[in-house]
Specification:
Helices cover 66% and strands 10% of the residues. Helix 1 (2-34) packs antiparallel against helix 2 and helix 3 (101-123) packs antiparallel against helix 4 (167-225). With 226 residues, it is mostly helical. The protein has four helices and two strands.
Length: 226
């Protein structure tokens, strides 16, 4: 939006310069008409051209007003219509380092699958738990002895899910498919980004070459005008 306003300003400056040239030319033509060297229609042709420039200046005025209002809304700040925009100095450099949030999401999804795979493999392992309990009460462990006694219990508990009816294998297969999908999506995403970077780099190089030619054209036109 900023650069569109800047471009409108530049176009406005160019049209005003053209308008001044036409005014000078019209004076010359009027002098020629006065002495019969030029046909009166020549002045009308230039006047028509001057009116076209007036139309273009009017369009630019309203386009600039609308653009400034849009920019004011975007930055939530009032911009004076007579504001002077400064052309920034830009050094083109395409950063190929990719820090896109989608890549972080792909990596987190891959980690999640790895954790799930480890969890499944652990479900089929033999689980051994040791436990201990101690106390003092009436009765103790001997329910027939009606007196306060200390007591304790020690034990080991084992759990082994021998028959899971291939449930773990199916879950692992599903995770492998999910992992392959995520890998493919990540590779496709990176390919799209690389293609976009190539396109942008090509566009930047093209514009830089065009600007170089523009500079040459300006030098030639300045010479012609002088």
């Amino acid at each position: 939006m900023y650069f569109s306003i800047f471009l409108l300003n530049e176009r406005n400056t160019i049209l005003l310069a053209k308008q001044q040239q036409l005014d000078s030319k019209i004076k010359e033509v009027k002098s020629g008409i006065k002495f019969g060297a030029i046909l009166p229609t020549s002045e009308k042709v230039l006047q028509a051209e001057k009116l076209k420039i007036k139309q273009q200046l009017t369009e630019i005025k309203f386009d600039r007003k609308r653009a400034l209002e849009s920019l004011s809304s975007l930055i939530t700040s009032t911009i004076n219509k007579n504001v002077t925009l400064v052309k920034p100095v830009i050094e083109w450099e395409i950063n190929t380092e990719n820090k896109h949030p989608d890549l972080q999401l792909f990596d987190l999804q891959s980690k999640q699958i790895e954790i799930s795979k480890k969890s499944i493999s652990k479900n089929n392992l033999l689980k051994v738990n040791a436990f201990a309990q101690a106390g003092y009460g009436n009765p103790g462990l001997n329910m027939l002895d009606n007196s306060f006694q200390t007591f304790y219990l020690l034990g080991v508990k084992a759990h082994w899910n021998v028959f899971d009816w291939n449930k773990s294998k199916k879950e692992e297969d599903a995770l492998l498919i999910s992992e392959a999908i995520i890998t493919t999506e990540k590779e496709t995403f990176l390919l799209d980004i690389d293609l976009q970077l190539l396109e942008m780099e090509n566009e930047v190089n093209k514009i830089q070459e065009v600007i170089g030619t523009d500079v040459e054209i300006i030098v030639v036109r300045e010479y012609v005008i002088k």
